[in-house]
Structure formats: structure tokens, C-alpha cells
């Protein structure tokens, strides 16, 4: 009489984590054809069938190979199929909550980027004061990232992001009701006011450390792709939402008042984030590590983190020459594009970038994380180099959109690769150190762009950025081409065993 045998297999065609149940096979026999299986929800561990015999051994390699070779139609046709592999069934509840908080924050960042400078001007701030407030926002974000990266795993990741969400609400309220320089400077220095539409403070650092724990290794890159894609789309629609200033003006609001509701909503987003963060489970916390803890929370991977930080800093320094706000200004100076035209262009920039992030996960499964990082980045840099050489605005826009359709594919792959090659207890510190390196380096470049624009060398920032980015690609490939994440080495061990 046969016995039920439980076997696990990772689907190559991304239909989910399959847990086949082989019935009618003796433990000593070679497993032939799976008669039933179901999709395992990694969050709830719910199954369509509760027959389990984890103590039974069987010919796992044969069964896994046969299941992995099945197509989608064959898969659904098998007796016992009752699972739904889509709708992020492979992602834990904690992971889904982090996606929700990310969407809410980046939607707010999207409209804040559009209205922040105009709002401060409407309050009567002069350009110098506006510059100090924006500098305080960037500096506060960097300092908060450094501080919380060092202590987050000691005081708790959940408590860390909840605290920052509370500060986000405070910052939003200060900007909504304050009318003079000092309170606004304090609000900006909370490290939760985004001046660039990018993530601020410790949110991304902690979430980047938690996310690998919410999904299987084989899904980690897809998860980072989704994490960044939803942020791009949320920021795009947030930018469009800034047009509601006209609606508030039609209600009779004058001066700076039409902008205040945006900051009240910003504070509300912080409170909603806080409410979600406190419901995260204990699984988001790092496992207790016994033994020596070195400075900055890095133990085994100190050399790796140092190399990554230096290389990511080079890439971010190059990127600082072509941040989107400066590129928009370049289109205005070079081709005279109106704000309305720029709004349309940069909406599509965010949409194309978001789609490319999803493509990154698909491509990384086929050619590897590092190869995806490098071999999509180089063509995007070549396109960037050509943008200022175009003879018309339409061609320049088309080439820039083509560049943005692939330039962000290294973002989720970079994040996934970084988290994969360090120890789990080092992830928060690693994310913090590498993110601070990027933020600091990117802040150095914009003043040089202003100087180039003032001198009439409008194309120079594009040339410098493209050259440095290609240099970065060569260096990171040469340095890490032999360092593989677990999911890329596991198949090699299986074949050789």
C-alpha cells in the first residue's frame, strides 16, 4: 500500500510555490507522475489538503524535475490542482503591509515634489530660505538614516519605522500650519519631508532589510521589482494630484492656503503608516545573534559592504548630474518646454520606469542579478549620452523616454543582490550604509550642474553622468562577477550532486 509523500518544487514559470503530494508511491520507489498537488500560501500556510507525511523520504530530484517541466496548462489539468499562484500568494502578510505603506508614502512624495518650492514661495520665503529648508530636508533624511541604521536592529525594526511614521505626521502638520522660517526648518529636519520624490529617512532601509524575510529567495528580486514599481506609479499619480491646487483655489483659498490641504494629507499618510507598522508581526525582527557584534552592525561582510558603498556612491554621484528635476530644467532651457508639457513627459517617465522594474525581475531570473544590473545599465547610459545631441525636442524626449524605460532595471536587482550576499543580521546596517553612501554622493553633483548651465554648457552634465555610469558598470562587474546570491548557486549544487 502506498503512502502520501510531500515534495516541494519551485516553479520556473512563476506559478507560485508548489507543494505536490505524491499518492500511491512507495517511499523506496522512484516517483513517477504527481497525481495531486496544491499551492502553498507562504503567509498563512493554508492548503487545500491536510495530508502530510514530512517524515517520509522519497526520490525528490525526479519529482521536482518532472513538476518543474510542466507547462501552465498541464499544471492546471493535474488532478488535485486547487491553488491560485497569483495575487502575491507567495508573499507574507507583513510583506503586503509594507507594499501598502510604500504606495501611500510615495503618492505623497509625488505631489510634494511639485508643490513644495511653490508653497514656500507663497509663504513669502526668499530663495535663500527655501534653499536652507530643502537642504535641511535632505540632511535630515541622511542623518536619520545613519542614526536609525545603527540602532534599528537593537530597538526593533517595527518600532523604528513606527517612530519615523510618527515624525512624518509631525513634519506634515508643521508644514501645514507654520508660516515662518524656523518651524519649517524644524519640520524639514525630521527627515521625513521628501524634496526629490525619492524615499526619505529610514523607511526604505528598514523595509529593504525586512522584505527578504517575507518571500522565498527565488521571489526576492520580483518582490523588490514590485516594491519599486508600485512606488513609481504612486509617485506618478501623486504628481498629477498636485493639479488639485486649482480646485482649492476655486473654493476661494488664497496665497499659501490652497497648498495646506496637501500637507494635512501628508500627515494623515504618516498616521496610517504608523497604524500599519505597529501591526507587523515579530517575524520582521532580526534573529538574535550571539557572539561578537562589530561597529555599524556589520560582522562577516565588512569588506563587501565597503566595496558596494564605494561603487554605489560612484553611480549615485553620476546620477546626481541628471536628477529628474535638473533634466526637466534642461528641457525648459534647451527646448523651451512649458510646465504642462513637462508634466506629461515626466508622468510617462514614471510609468515607463515602473514597467521596467517589473521586467527586471523577469530578466534577472534568466541571466542573473549582476548581469541584469550591468547589461541594462550600459545601454541606458549610451542613450543618456545621446539625449543632448538630438536636433529637436521631440527626438530628445523620445530618446530620454527610451533611456528611462531601461535605466531603472538595476534598482530592484541592486537591492536584491545587496541583501542576498550579506548575512540576515547585517541587512539593516548594510541597507543603511549603502543608502547613505548613495544619498551623500548624489547631493554633491547638482551645484556643478548649475555651474555648467550658467556657462552655457547644457550638454556637459549628460556626458559626465553617462561616462561615470559606464565606469561604474565596468567596476562592479569586475569586482563581483564571481559573487552569486543563494538562488543562483543552488541549481549548480543540485546538478553536481
Task: State the main characteristics.
497 residues, mainly alpha, Growth Hormone, Chain: A, 3 domains, 4-stranded antiparallel β-sheet, 20 helices, 4 strands, 4% strand, disordered N terminus, disordered C terminus
Low-pLDDT sequence parts: 1-86, 288-295, 492-497
Number of helices: 20
Q: Please, what is the CATH homologous superfamily of the largest domain?
A: MFS general substrate transporter like domains
CATH topology name of the largest domain, in short, is Growth Hormone, Chain: A
Q: Ends: how far apart?
A: 31 Å
Bin the helical content.
55-70%
Q: What gross morphology would you assign?
A: globular
In angstroms, what is the radius of gyration?
25 Å
- Written as H for each helix and E for each strand, in order along the chain, the element string is EEEEHHHHHHHHHHHHHHHHHHHH
* Proportion of strand residues: under 5%
**What's the story with the biggest beta sheet?**
4 strands, antiparallel
CATH architecture of the largest domain: Up-down Bundle
By CATH reckoning, the class of the largest domain would read Mainly Alpha
Count of separate structural domains: 3
Number of strands: 4
Mean pLDDT: 75
**What structural class results from the helix and strand content?**
mainly alpha
3D structure, described in words:
This protein has 497 residues and is mainly alpha-helical. The chain has 3 domains: 3-77, no CATH class; 91-286, MFS general substrate transporter like domains (Growth Hormone, Chain: A, Up-down Bundle); 300-497, Growth Hormone, Chain: A (Up-down Bundle). Helix content is 64%, strand content 4%. The model is unreliable at 1-86, 288-295 and 492-497 (pLDDT under 50).
Amino acid at each position: 500500500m502506498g503512502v502520501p509523500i510531500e515534495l516541494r518544487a519551485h516553479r520556473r514559470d512563476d506559478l507560485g510555490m508548489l507543494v505536490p503530494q505524491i499518492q500511491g508511491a512507495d517511499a523506496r520507489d522512484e516517483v513517477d507522475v504527481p497525481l495531486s498537488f496544491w499551492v502553498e500560501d507562504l503567509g498563512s500556510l493554508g492548503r487545500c489538503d491536510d495530508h502530510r507525511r514530512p517524515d517520509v523520504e522519497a526520490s525528490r530530484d525526479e519529482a521536482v524535475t518532472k513538476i518543474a517541466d510542466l507547462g501552465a496548462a498541464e499544471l492546471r489539468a493535474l488532478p488535485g490542482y486547487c491553488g491560485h499562484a497569483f495575487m502575491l500568494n507567495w508573499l507574507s502578510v507583513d510583506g503586503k503591509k509594507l507594499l501598502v505603506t510604500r504606495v501611500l508614502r510615495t503618492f505623497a512624495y509625488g505631489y510634494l515634489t511639485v508643490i513644495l518650492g511653490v508653497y514656500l514661495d507663497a509663504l513669502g520665503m526668499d530663495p535663500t530660505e527655501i534653499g536652507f529648508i530643502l537642504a535641511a530636508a535632505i540632511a535630515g533624511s541622511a542623518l536619520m538614516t545613519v542614526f536609525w541604521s545603527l540602532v534599528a536592529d537593537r530597538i526593533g525594526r517595527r518600532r523604528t519605522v513606527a517612530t519615523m511614521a510618527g515624525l512624518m505626521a509631525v513634519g506634515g502638520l508643521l508644514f501645514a500650519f507654520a508660516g515662518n522660517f524656523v518651524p519649517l526648518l524644524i519640520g524639514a529636519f525630521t527627515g521625513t519631508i521628501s524634496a526629490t520624490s525619492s524615499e526619505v529617512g529610514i523607511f526604505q532601509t528598514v523595509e529593504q532589510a525586512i522584505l527578504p524575510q517575507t518571500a522565498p529567495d527565488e521571489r526576492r528580486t520580483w518582490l523588490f521589482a514590485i516594491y519599486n514599481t508600485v512606488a513609481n506609479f504612486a509617485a506618478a499619480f501623486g504628481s498629477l494630484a498636485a493639479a488639485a491646487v486649482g480646485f482649492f483655489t476655486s473654493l476661494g483659498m488664497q496665497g499659501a492656503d490652497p497648498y495646506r490641504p496637501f500637507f494635512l494629507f501628508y500627515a494623515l499618510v504618516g498616521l496610517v503608516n504608523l497604524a500599519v507598522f505597529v501591526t507587523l508581526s515579530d517575524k520582521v525582527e532580526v534573529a538574535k545573534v550571539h557572539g561578537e557584534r562589530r561597529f555599524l552592525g556589520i560582522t562577516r561582510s565588512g569588506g563587501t559592504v565597503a566595496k558596494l558603498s564605494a561603487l554605489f556612491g560612484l553611480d549615485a554621484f553620476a546620477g546626481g548630474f541628471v536628477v529628474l528635476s535638473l533634466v526637466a530644467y534642461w528641457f525648459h532651457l534647451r527646448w523651451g518646454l512649458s510646465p504642462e508639457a513637462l508634466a506629461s513627459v515626466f508622468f510617462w517617465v514614471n510609468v515607463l520606469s515602473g514597467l521596467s522594474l517589473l521586467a527586471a525581475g523577469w530578466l534577472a531570473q534568466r541571466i542573473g542579478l549582476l548581469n541584469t544590473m550591468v547589461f541594462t545599465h550600459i545601454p541606458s547610459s549610451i542613450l543618456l549620452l545621446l539625449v543632448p545631441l538630438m536636433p529637436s525636442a521631440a527626438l530628445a524626449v523620445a530618446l530620454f523616454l527610451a533611456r528611462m524605460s531601461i535605466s531603472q532595471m538595476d534598482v530592484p536587482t541592486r537591492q536584491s543582490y545587496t541583501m542576498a550576499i550579506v548575512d540576515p543580521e547585517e541587512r539593516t546596517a548594510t541597507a543603511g550604509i549603502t543608502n547613505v553612501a548613495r544619498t551623500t554622493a548624489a547631493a554633491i553633483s547638482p551645484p556643478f550642474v548649475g555651474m555648467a548651465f550658467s556657462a552655457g554648457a547644457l550638454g556637459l552634465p549628460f556626458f559626465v553622468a553617462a561616462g561615470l555610469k559606464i565606469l561604474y558598470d565596468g567596476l562592479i562587474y569586475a569586482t563581483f562577477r564571481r559573487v552569486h546570491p543563494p538562488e543562483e548557486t543552488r541549481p549548480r549544487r543540485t546538478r553536481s550532486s
